[in-house]
Design goal:
There is one protein chain. By secondary structure, the protein is of the alpha/beta class. It is globular and about 60 Å long. Helix 2 (49-58) runs antiparallel to helix 8 and helix 3 (65-85) packs parallel to helix 4 (101-110). Helix 4 links the parallel strand 2 (89-93) and strand 3. The longest helix is centred in the N-terminal third of the chain and has 21 residues, at 65-85. The strands form three sheets. The protein has an eight-stranded mixed beta sheet with strand order 1-4-3-2-5-6-13-12, with helices on both faces. It has a three-stranded antiparallel beta sheet with strand order 7-8-11. A two-stranded antiparallel sheet has the order 9-10. It is built from ten helices and 13 strands.
């Protein structure tokens, strides 16, 4: 596999895997989450290799408007975003399959700015696949991937020129708006310079029926994605959760303005987590939260950005006001 100038595309790829050293931390986080009421599983465990592939299928479902709506916004506005940012590098937090990322990379290429893409994702296999695809598609692009969960990997970013840091796909919604989300944004801000720009994707508050349909698709892909979390937990904690003993439940929590996604026990069960030296008795009907997806409006998003020490530059939405991109700049501290 060679570029037009004879340079091996593989030479332009660097993938750092940081997952192994964090096993103890992941186990500690899992233990703390299981002690909460209701019990929880950290949502990052949804995205193992199989989970990432299932999520790609979710993004293509008719009920799941988020991905296609955000991509359409990017396609209409990418050139303007890149003109404002003048970024030579794109950092993407929670990159996944980089489906929408290509829109920004093409805009950077058109403007003669494209140098390097730095994706951060917990799924190393996905990073390797995407890096190979992108270096074939963009002959001069270098890819430096970091295989780790985003809340513990930002310090691994290498130095570089002016950057656009993208956090797309409404992934910010998986973090509690009152504490976790501002804390992450402050961490991102601390690693940015004054000339850098931040692009945040947020899913907007809308009617309950449309929201609940997006997380309860008729074909059952979301239920399979949600239930796959037990396979990841079993590997991490040497546990014996039976994924068939749970069912998927997702509902709109109006008070907190988020979708609440849970696994509900179909029957009573006794589960051992050997790596934690822990045994759990789970009652029939008990609900274990695996994810939240907080929704935003413009005032709520601006308040979040301000708490994270950013200032809104531009607010970009689709015609139906389903989804928004917030382009922001770091505030001096």
């Amino acid at each position: 596999m060679r570029d037009g100038d004879g340079t091996a595309a593989a030479a332009r790829i660097t993938i750092e895997s940081r997952s192994a050293p964090h096993r103890d931390r992941d186990l500690a986080e899992l233990y703390q989450a299981l002690e909460r009421s209701p019990r929880e599983i950290p949502s990052k465990h949804l995205y193992d290799e199989r989970g990432s592939l299932l999520f790609e299928r979710i993004c293509e479902l008719p009920e799941y408007y988020q991905t296609r709506t955000e991509k359409a916004i990017l396609e209409r506005n990418a050139d303007r975003i890149i003109e404002e940012s003048r970024a030579r590098e794109l950092v993407e937090i929670g990159a996944g399959a980089a489906t929408k990322t290509r829109v920004l990379l093409r805009a950077m290429e058109r403007q003669g700015l494209l140098e390097r893409y730095l994706p951060i994702d917990v799924d190393v296999a996905m990073l390797e696949r995407v890096a190979a695809e992108l270096t074939r598609e963009f002959p001069r692009l270098a890819v430096h991937g970091i295989g780790a969960d985003f809340d513990h990997s930002l310090e691994r970013l290498p130095p570089g020129p002016r950057r656009l840091v993208a956090f797309l796909g409404s992934t910010i919604g998986n973090l509690r708006p009152e504490d976790q989300a501002p804390e992450l944004l402050r961490s991102i801000r601390s690693r940015m310079r004054s000339g850098d720009r931040f692009l945040l994707g947020v899913d907007l508050i809308k009617d309950r029926a449309r929201l609940e349909a997006a997380y309860n698709d008729a074909s059952g892909v979301t239920a399979a994605f949600s239930g796959n979390i037990w396979n990841a937990v079993n590997r991490l904690a040497d546990a014996d959760f039976d994924s068939a003993a749970f069912r998927h439940r997702a509902f709109w929590d109006q008070r907190n303005e988020w979708m609440d996604i849970r696994q509900v026990a179909r029957r009573a069960q006794h589960v051992r987590l050997r790596a934690l030296d822990l045994a759990l008795d789970i009652a029939a009907g008990e609900e274990i939260r695996t994810e939240i997806s907080a929704k935003y409006d413009r005032p709520k998003a601006e308040a979040l950005l301000a708490a994270g020490r950013f200032e809104l530059v531009e607010w970009i939405t689709d015609d139906e006001n389903l989804f928004a991109l917030a382009l922001a700049r770091p505030v001096r501290v």
